[in-house]
């Protein structure tokens, strides 16, 4: 049996993104190691205020201008008007306790230099912290059901999935209304599916990804568990950090989701069921069955 014969719909991984620092710029990659908490090093770091509370583009759009680069032993962060900040992948400074949404979690502070760099760029006292890998931050059982799943500093779930067709559908509406098309980067997905219909991800249950020959031994399984409700971040142009309401206005016309009491949604939050330790690559086949409420 193959993905094609066992699935209602098949497609491919068209694009892959990793976001090392929560709410800062992403990195498009051709392949990424899958871990129990999502793609390797995704949302492994986070910027917090003086009280240890997480900071995002929701209140600090300039965070979009912080561009990370991952190297073999370090992460290099660049931002306009700033010298590059080099952050070792295997060095931390001191233990800390930080808050992300309603969760108080142990973390590791990355030291005074990183703190000063972010404080200077964002214009307020900040610290850079790294998630403590010995801690498990559990995803909501309301959505994962019988599956125990955990994540690092992502909002709540380990992987965000959308599709090329979904962003194309949005862009058709934006252009028709006299606005410029936008990139899928505004929605900060990890996996972008190709070869499926617009918002097919909404209707998919488990995503089965062929990481070897497409047969059983090489399969990764991700489960779509919750529609992704959208805050104002997709209105922020990641190239300029300027915000305009066109994206939210367009989505409001057709993306009200009854599963979240009418919230605007785009993309699906997924969790890792099996396949941690395998490598996801652009071009791999993806199969799924439809799941309707």
Give an overview of the whole structure:
- By secondary structure, this protein is mainly beta.
- The chain has one domain: M1 Pyruvate Kinase, Domain 3, CATH 2.40.33.
- The chain is 15% helix and 38% strand.
- It has 6 helices and 21 strands.
- It is globular.
- 42% of the residues are buried.
Structure described in brief:
The chain has 293 residues and is mainly beta. The protein is built from six helices and 21 strands. The protein has helices at residues 3-6, 112-122, 141-144, 164-176, 200-203, 246-252, and strands spanning 9-18, 27-29, 31-35, 38-39, 45-49, 67-70, 74-78, 85-88, 94-100, 103-109, 126-131, 137-138, 150-151, 159-163, 191-194, 204-210, 219-229, 256-257, 263-274, 279-281, 285-290.
């Amino acid at each position: 049996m193959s993905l094609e014969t066992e699935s209602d719909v098949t497609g491919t991984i068209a694009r892959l993104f990793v976001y090392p620092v929560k709410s800062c710029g992403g990195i498009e990659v051709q392949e990424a190691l899958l871990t129990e908490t999502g793609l390797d090093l995704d949302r492994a770091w986070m910027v917090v205020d003086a009280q240890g509370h997480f900071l995002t583009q929701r209140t600090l759009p300039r965070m979009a201008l912080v561009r990370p680069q991952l190297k073999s032993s370090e992460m290099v962060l660049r931002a306009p008007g700033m010298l590059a900040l080099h952050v070792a992948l295997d060095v931390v400074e001191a233990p800390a306790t930080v808050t992300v949404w309603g969760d108080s979690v142990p973390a590791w502070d990355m030291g005074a230099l990183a703190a000063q760099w972010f404080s200077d760029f964002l214009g307020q006292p900040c610290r850079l912290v790294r998630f403590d890998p010995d801690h498990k931050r559990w995803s909501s059982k309301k959505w994962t059901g019988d599956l125990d799943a955990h994540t690092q500093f992502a909002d709540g779930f380990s992987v965000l999935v959308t599709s090329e067709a979904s962003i194309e559908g949005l862009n058709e509406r934006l252009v028709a209304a006299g606005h410029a098309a936008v990139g899928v980067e505004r929605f900060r997905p990890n996996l972008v599916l190709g070869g499926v219909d617009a918002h097919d991800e909404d209707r998919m249950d488990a995503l089965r990804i062929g990481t070897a020959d497409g047969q059983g031994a090489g399969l990764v399984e991700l489960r779509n568990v919750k529609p992704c409700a959208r805050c104002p971040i997709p209105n922020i142009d990641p190239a300029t950090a300027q915000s305009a309401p066109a994206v939210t206005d367009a989505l409001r016309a057709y993306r009200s989701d009854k599963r979240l009491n009418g919230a605007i949604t785009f993309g699906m939050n997924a969790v890792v069921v099996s396949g941690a330790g395998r490598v996801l690559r652009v071009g791999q086949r993806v199969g799924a069955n439809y799941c309707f409420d």
